[in-house]
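Quick illustration for those who missed Monday's session on complexes.
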Amino acid sequence: MNVSIYLASSSPRRSELLNQIGVLFDRVKAAIEEKPETGESAQDYVLRLALQKAQAGFKNSDKERPVLGADTIIVIDQKILEKPRDKKHAREMLQLLSGRVHQVFTAVALVQGVYTKSTLVKTEVSFKKLSEQDISDYWRSGEPVGKAAGYAIQGIAGKFINNISGSYSGVVGLPLFETAELIREFMEEVNH
Ligand SMILES: Cc1cn([C@H]2C[C@H](O)[C@@H](COP(=O)(O)OP(=O)(O)OP(=O)(O)O)O2)c(=O)[nH]c1=O
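Prediction with thymidine-5'-triphosphate bound:
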């Protein structure tokens, strides 16, 4: 893809995924508060965060290129799971996911001045039943830190996952097909 954008993300996975589809980018900083509002649905929440990251990134940029922001959350039993605060929190989340199917939502937003466009991708992920040993060994690997719901499908947790339906790259943090489409449509609109 022959476009150049800014990426409002500190996630190394998102950089790698954008590289994978040939989008040229520089990173910009975007610090926002991540907290659901009362009554806000999971879908609205994840879309709002992606958009706020892109908007914050745009403010910090030279405003010459579109800025991409993204956010990933996990939903199970109407609960939103984000990055673990500590070992106890990670253990609680993994116990909740054990032996069940959950939803992963990744939202991607593009912003350039008055132009904004976003997309939401849902993936269903099924976990095998996890033993206490699985969970404590997994925490000790260090992998849960910094990952939504405390797991990484692209890492050791791949061995816990017996089925997925949707976008693998979306679970890792940036859905490749939908992101490429979003960038293409955004460029068309801006250059019209
Ligand atoms: C579920 C899952 C999440 N993740 C990662 C993707 C995201 O980086 C992270 C979810 O946190 P996010 O808040 O979406 O993103 P981030 O804080 O890491 O990065 P930034 O806001 O700067 O863009 O979890 C995986 O790497 N593998 C997985 O299987």
